[in-house]
C-alpha cells in the first residue's frame, strides 16, 4: 500500500512498537506527524527518549527525513491522577482478580485515539497509526482489534470525519515486529530501536541488554527479550514460520 498524497499521525511513545509503526508510516505516507502523551507515567523517561529517536531518524534515514513532520506532545496528567495502576504509581506489578495485570490503565488507548483524532482533525490528517497488538499483548482490552474498529466508528461519527485507524502490528508477535523493523530500515533501524527506544515499565535506562535498555524483569522487558531471541532464531532458521499480515482497520 502506498499513499503518496496522504498524511498520517502516529501515536508515538518512543518505544519499540511505536518506532516500528513510525517507520512503517514513513514508508507508506507522503507526510508523517507524531503525537505523544504525558499522563504521569512511571516510565516517563520515554518522554525524553521520543525527541532523540525522532532526531536520529531525521539524521540517519535520508529517505524518511523529508517525510517526517511536526511532533505533538499532549498533557493528559488527569488520566494518571484518576488511576491506581502500576504504570502511574509505585506499586508492584501483579495480576488482579479480574485477570488483567495492574499495568492496565483503563481508558488509556481510548483517550490516546480521541486526542490524536482531535489533533489530526485540526491538522487535516485522515490516517491514524497505533502500535496496538492482539497477538502477544498482556490482555489489555483496549488493544483488541474489535476495540480499535469500534473507536474508528465512534470517531468518524462524532467528528463527522473519515479517519482510518491503521494497526500494522495487530496480528504479528514481537519477533515479527523485530523482523518488520529490519525489513523497513535494515540493521540501522534495529540498532536504533535497541540503543535509543524505551519500553521498560520501570523506566530503567541503566541496564543494557542485546535487545535494548531496561530492567529485564518487568513484563514489557520480558516480552521484548523473548521476541528478540525468537527473531534471532528465525534469522538462522532456513524455514522460518510465515510472518503475520499487516492489518488496516478500514
Automatic annotation (TrEMBL):
<dbReference type="InterPro" id="IPR014729">
    <property type="entry name" value="Rossmann-like_a/b/a_fold"/>
</dbReference>
<feature type="binding site">
    <location>
        <position position="221"/>
    </location>
    <ligand>
        <name>Zn(2+)</name>
    </ligand>
</feature>
<dbReference type="InterPro" id="IPR018317">
    <property type="entry name" value="QueC"/>
</dbReference>
<keyword id="KW-0862">Zinc</keyword>
<dbReference type="GO" id="GO:0016874">
    <property type="term" value="F:ligase activity"/>
</dbReference>
<keyword id="KW-0067">ATP-binding</keyword>
<feature type="binding site">
    <location>
        <position position="218"/>
    </location>
    <ligand>
        <name>Zn(2+)</name>
    </ligand>
</feature>
<comment type="pathway">
    <text>Purine metabolism; 7-cyano-7-deazaguanine biosynthesis.</text>
</comment>
<comment type="function">
    <text>Catalyzes the ATP-dependent conversion of 7-carboxy-7-deazaguanine (CDG) to 7-cyano-7-deazaguanine (preQ(0)).</text>
</comment>
<protein>
    <recommendedName>
        <fullName>7-cyano-7-deazaguanine synthase</fullName>
        <ecNumber>6.3.4.20</ecNumber>
    </recommendedName>
</protein>
<comment type="similarity">
    <text>Belongs to the QueC family.</text>
</comment>
<feature type="binding site">
    <location>
        <position position="215"/>
    </location>
    <ligand>
        <name>Zn(2+)</name>
    </ligand>
</feature>
<keyword id="KW-0671">Queuosine biosynthesis</keyword>
<feature type="binding site">
    <location>
        <begin position="12"/>
        <end position="22"/>
    </location>
    <ligand>
        <name>ATP</name>
    </ligand>
</feature>
<keyword id="KW-0547">Nucleotide-binding</keyword>
<keyword id="KW-0479">Metal-binding</keyword>
<dbReference type="Pfam" id="PF06508">
    <property type="entry name" value="QueC"/>
</dbReference>
<feature type="binding site">
    <location>
        <position position="200"/>
    </location>
    <ligand>
        <name>Zn(2+)</name>
    </ligand>
</feature>
<keyword id="KW-0436">Ligase</keyword>
